[in-house]
Amino acid sequence: MDIARWVGLGIGAAVLYAVLREAKPDMAALLSLAAGAVLMLGVLGGVQEVLEAMRSLSSRVGLEGTYVSTLLRVIGIAYLAQFGAQACRDAGAGGIADKVELCGKVAVLSIAAPVVVSLMDVVTGVLV
Amino acid sequence: MNVDLLFQIAGIGILVSVIAQVLSRTGREDMAMLASVAGLVVVLLMVVNVVAQLLNNVKSIFQLY
User: Fold this and answer.
1) Cβ neighbours of B22 in A, within 8 Å
2) A19, A22, A31, A40: which to substitute to probe chain B, counting the most B Cβ within 10 Å?
3) Which of A10, A53, A123, B35 is the most buried (most CB within 10 A)?
């Protein structure tokens, strides 16, 4: 996972984006979307290793599996929502970007709700 | 890490903009519009593949069904 290649790719894409923006703004937006996708694809390998380490650590500690999988899905949703919102913002559609982020927040909340409920049960159990 | 995709997109973009300029200069605006739309469609197809690959990978890694 050499960082130099990714940084070089990002800078190259930024330069190409600047070149294309005058000639063809719509093509420039597509270029930034493609650059974002390529970079995030490159990062996915590293993310997978981190997740494997986290999963093995949590199983050794004896943490319950459902919480770890919930955490994983929340990270995935945040990962995708940020990518989509940034792509929309690059294309100049700030409003749509905010809506995409709103969808991401709602998705995270809908996944995290059962965990919060079970936390409340534990807390009330202890207090009673 | 398909880096060449970015350079292909940039190349197509510059080429199409040059072609559109030439066509519009010689008085054929409709052909210029068609050329730019065609270039856009080609680039869209290339980008869609990469984005679909990214979304599928993320869904499989994070178990987002």
Assistant:
1) none
2) A31
3) B35
What's the gap in Å between the CA of A53 and the closest CA on chain B? 14
CB A6 within 8 A of CB A42: yes
How many Å apart are CA A31 and CA A21, to the nearest integer? Answer: 10
State the alpha helices, DSSP H only, in chain A.
3-23, 25-61, 65-90, 94-127
10-residue mean pLDDT profile of chain A (128 residues): values are: 86 92 88 92 88 86 79 90 92 94 95 89 87
pTM: 0.84
User: What is the residue whose two structure tokens read 């005058």?
Assistant: A22
Specify whether the CB–CB gap between A41 and B53 falls below 8 A: yes
What ipTM score was computed for the predicted complex, to two decimals? 0.87
Contact assignment for B62 to A40 by CB distance below 8 Å = no
Distance CA A58, CA B20 (A): 58
8 A C-beta contact, residue A27 and residue B13: yes
Find the mean pLDDT for residues B43-63: 91
Four-residue CA torsion sign, A104, A110, A114, A117: positive
Please say whether the beta carbons of B50 and A35 come within 8 A: no
